[in-house]
Amino acid sequence: EWSLQLAPTPDILAWLGEHKSDGQVLIGFAMESDAETAREAALSKLEAKNLDAIILNLLREGESGFGIDSNNVELFVGQKTAQSQDQAQYQDPPYAFGGTKLDVALQLVDQLSVSLSGVSPSGNSSSTKKKS
Fold it and tell me: Model-level pTM?
């Protein structure tokens, strides 16, 4: 009989958030399997880990996740406001992207560059759709 003992790993993203420098951008990723709590979990991670943005990937068998070439994600971009430096605000509804994994990755890079710096890498305004 085999036995495998696992040890917890350090939370690298939390450490990075705690040690983030002014002007540094930190983006997280959340893979969730429960559609009812996925957004809440992602937004909790956005705030708790001091992230600037988080990409939520809801695992949907046959639609997105592992072993297939397509994906659907939601992007939440956090914003600290002058009135609320202690509590992150985020755009609502989130940005939503779908397609091949390559297409989704390119859309995310384009939208993140616009949302976090105001400039698109392609020089164009980003083509995003807000989830309704």
Answer: 0.76
